[in-house]
Amino acid sequence: MTITLARRTVFGLAAAAALTTAMPASAADWQPNRPVEMVIMAGQGGGADRLARLFQSIIQQEGLARMPFMPVNKGGGSGAEALRYVKDNAANPHIIMATLNSYFTTPLQTDIGVDIEEFTPIARMAVDTFALWVNVDSGIETLDQYIEAVKAADGAWRMGGTGSGQEDSLVTALLEREFGIRHTYVPMGGGGEVATQLAGGHIDATVNNPSEAMSFWQAGRVRPIALLTGERLESMPDVQTFAELGYPLEYYMQRSFVAPAGITEAQQAYYIDLLEALSQTEAWQSYATEQALLTDFLSGDALQAYFLQERDLHRDLLASIEQPS
């Protein structure tokens, strides 16, 4: 039975535009008066970390804020550390959090006393994509060869990932169900480490975001086998999708920001305006295209509705994995 990993939102791709204004429109209402912590729900080197640090750089270079934005990694417990930190800092307007899909899955799987409905939605900058990757020395070039190799390994095939309940573990479990294969899942500290370990031949495969593995692919050390997208990507035009191969498997990861509960409307508006301005910069648009990110700015109540829809979807996905094939 074919399993669709996630329903795809219709993404409107925003046109790139150079930004010349120095401050968001809401700056007259409220602005940070001390450095802003940009909490990251993951370890260093992965997609969320790379994006947060890129945004830090763009904010500084474009003069979008008077105060600096300081990335802080809190990836412990599949993002539970970050979630609790933001919850415990209610009404603090000098904290925002960069989210990924563990924003949904970790509270569903772990009793950490966090309800994401309580957080203040800021903005979704993009959705990230996934691909199945192998080391080039494996000699594997097709999906059929991959399935054959994993079956021959009889459960010993090492699939690197970022932890139980994380996005890549969901994709791994669903690939196993779809193709009747088994992996040895090897959890690591972050997506950057996973990509590095694959390039070094220390694991056999990953389902990394393209942005995490792109440099190793360009260096000829890893190879994408298939994309978990509905269509081919502009930055990877020669890589087939699972759908093209007869398996309509799709999965996407949101790249968004939230703030603690209890901040004011003016404080929320400041961050929405700032990130909307950032979304229009040439630096962000170019990076998103090169790194296979699908840009679609969403904010406020519309973003909260999206979060709750995705939480329901991930609850269903987790339940489907737990059920026998």
Automatic annotation (TrEMBL):
Transmembrane segments: none
Keywords: Receptor, Signal
InterPro entries according to UniProt: BUG (IPR005064), Bug_dom1 (IPR042100), TAT_signal (IPR006311)
Top-rank taxon, per record: Bacteria
Tagged with keyword Signal: yes
Signal peptide range: 1-27
Keyword Endoplasmic reticulum assigned: no
Family (UniProt): Belongs to the UPF0065 (bug) family.
Descriptive protein name: Tripartite-type tricarboxylate transporter receptor subunit TctC
